[in-house]
Design a protein that fits this description.
Layout: H1 2-17, E1 24-35, E2 38-47, E3 55-60, H2 71-74, H3 79-82, E4 87-92, H4 101-117, H5 119-122, E5 129-134, H6 136-146, E6 168-172, H7 202-207, E7 221-226, H8 235-246, E8 251-256, H9 265-283
Helix pairs in contact: 1-9
Length: about 290
């Protein structure tokens, strides 16, 4: 999952990088929290002309590994969004193998709270925040969509008093049911043994499976998957879509025929276009 997700992101980056120009203001390494003496950070990509006031969080995660890259190198990956006026936050979480999936979920949850608390600073509307990611990043995006809350009003930490709810989600090739992926699962795919993040007991696997959290108040969600994916089979997305339909959440499933876990060429272009269109539709019109 780690390598496939990096391939997917790299494909989209290659597609976009050639046309990337100095059309964004980059604010690197914004600290949204600390743990184990380490800073948790994200980079901000703000359109220099006519930002539309919408923030979109990108989950920097593949196999629940979260790696730093110079923001100037990945700017092109976000160009389809920044060209439409969206401000993009590239959020890193505590990375596997040191940190677990529950910790990654808690980290990205905090990032939403922090951005909402500091919405004026970033010039975004706190009520128009979206999130997206690929593979493990898609899983984290769905967890934000399905398992968020209004904050803890009794917390001493002002960040934790703020809601981590988002207003739109796009999840690419996302695992949605960890119960069939962890070490205890009797029929899990052999490839999952490569990912230490999946060393979870069944209780934690269930608690962090978006499939089990779908409720009527979830935000509009777009699922994008390849029907030939042999790492995260398309059934993950199909089952998630069914769960959304049962509770009447506005959602769509877009399947790419013959596509595997990493989209390339025309598949990558189409998938990116679908993602941008979804955020335009759900969060507001792009900058003119």
């Amino acid at each position: 999952m780690r390598h496939a997700c990096l391939l997917l992101a790299g494909t989209i980056l290659t597609m976009c990088a050639a046309s990337a120009r100095a059309d964004v203001t980059i604010t690197p390494d914004v600290v949204y929290g600390h743990k184990d003496g380490l800073a948790m950070t994200f980079d901000v990509f703000t359109p220099t002309e006519k930002p539309n006031g919408v923030g979109v969080l990108f989950m920097v995660s593949g196999g629940w590994y979260s790696r730093w890259n110079p923001p100037e190198r990945v700017q092109g990956m976000f160009k389809p969004l920044t060209d439409k006026g969206f401000t993009v936050f590239a959020v890193r979480h505590g990375s596997s193998p040191k940190f677990s999936i529950p910790e990654a979920v808690a980290d990205v949850s905090r990032s939403v709270r922090y951005i909402r608390l500091n919405a004026d600073r970033f010039k975004v509307d706190p009520d128009r925040l979206g999130v997206y990611g690929y593979s493990a990043g898609g899983h984290l995006s769905l967890m934000l969509g399905t398992a968020s809350d209004d904050g803890n009003s009794q917390s001493d930490d002002p960040v934790e008093r703020v809601s981590d709810r988002v207003s739109a989600v796009v999840a690419f090739v996302a695992p949605t049911d960890l119960r069939i992926m962890v070490h205890e699962a009797p029929d899990r795919l052999p490839a999952y043994a490569r990912f230490p993040a999946l060393t979870l007991d069944m209780k934690n696997a269930a608690e962090h499976s978006p499939l089990l959290h779908a409720t009527a108040d979830d935000p509009p969600t777009l699922l994008i998957a390849g029907d030939a994916d042999d790492l995260v089979p398309v059934t993950h997305s199909r089952n998630m879509q069914q769960a959304f339909q049962e509770v009447k959440v506005s959602s769509e499933l877009f399947e790419l025929p013959g596509a595997g876990h990493g989209f390339q060429g025309e598949d990558a272009r189409i998938a990116t276009e679908k993602m941008v269109d979804w955020f335009v539709k759900q969060l507001g019109k792009p900058a003119s």
